[in-house]
TrEMBL record:
Domain PiggyBac transposable element-derived protein: 163-343
Organism: Elysia chlorotica
Name of this chain's protein: PiggyBac transposable element-derived protein domain-containing protein
Skewed-composition ranges (Polar residues): 84-93
InterPro entries assigned: PGBD
Amino acid sequence: MDERNIEMDERNIFDALEASNNQLGQEEEHYEAESGTDTDEEEGQYTFLEAVNQSLAAEELSSDEEYVLTELGPVIHRFEESEATPTTSTDGQHTPDEVVDRSTPDVHQVLNDLQEDIAIPIHLAAKDGIVWSVQPGAVNKTPSKNVFRPPVRKFINCQTMTDPESAFDLLFTPTMVRDIVKYTNKEGRRVQQHRWVDTDDIEIQAFIGILIHLGALNQNIFPTELIWDTRNGNTLARSAMTRSRFLALSNRLRFDDKETRTERRNRDEFAPIRDMWEQVLSNMRRHYVPGPFITVDEQLIPWRGRCKFLQYLPSKPDKYGLKVFWACDAETNYPLVARPYLVQQRKI
């Protein structure tokens, strides 16, 4: 409710009161003319509060006006007492012939007196129960805990990061590499038995480095014969390991214990790499504070192997693959959260 509407409500209240007083005065004059008596002397004047009661009884006021009059009750009584008190002359004697002005008091003065003397806010009640205040509420300072300050984008807990290798270790920890070594050797012995040559941490790190290097050069889709070609192949891949060893590690690489996989897979289709997946994402969030803007989108990771939740998206460049939903920093594209889409697609 704006200030203009409040002033109109106040004016309507006292216009109704003044109209009631005028009606009472006309009735008094009519009675005096017929009986020849002065009603003020015999019965006394109608008080301002009586005029209020008359208006309320006649149901001339709205619910808002009645609410304001209820709040104004103590002030009306005070004005009535001041109006009923006769004036006093300079010698201390009352002058009953002098009549106190019974005009309606100023609306704003009444409201100010109510606010200052009674120390309660003046309200207007709506029909739906909402209570509006004429006086503005106290403006308090917002607590610091309620003030939102956008986070500052930065890397944290990176004291040990001195080169690219140490930066990679923050996300792909040595403990995770040792788990890959353990499960890969276990699978190699199970399949190839005594013909399997155990791998170690250094060789697995070299294997991961080759994959990252080929991906950065967009050579990850090349056949291995071309990558390990002595004339036009990739020098870094050939210097790290032979093609046959690379293929052996690719076939036997494992991220979990295959003996317990069946039980875990009943609860989670992503069980073969779930633990390693969550550890990498947890390390990413541990060492980075994102900015105020996060973007969410989907990605189709190309894949044509055996998988129950393989997706077919004809609008993508690679139509078959694994669909993953990512939440990344909008400015740096740094990944924070990833959820694979594990719903099996219906066959058409």
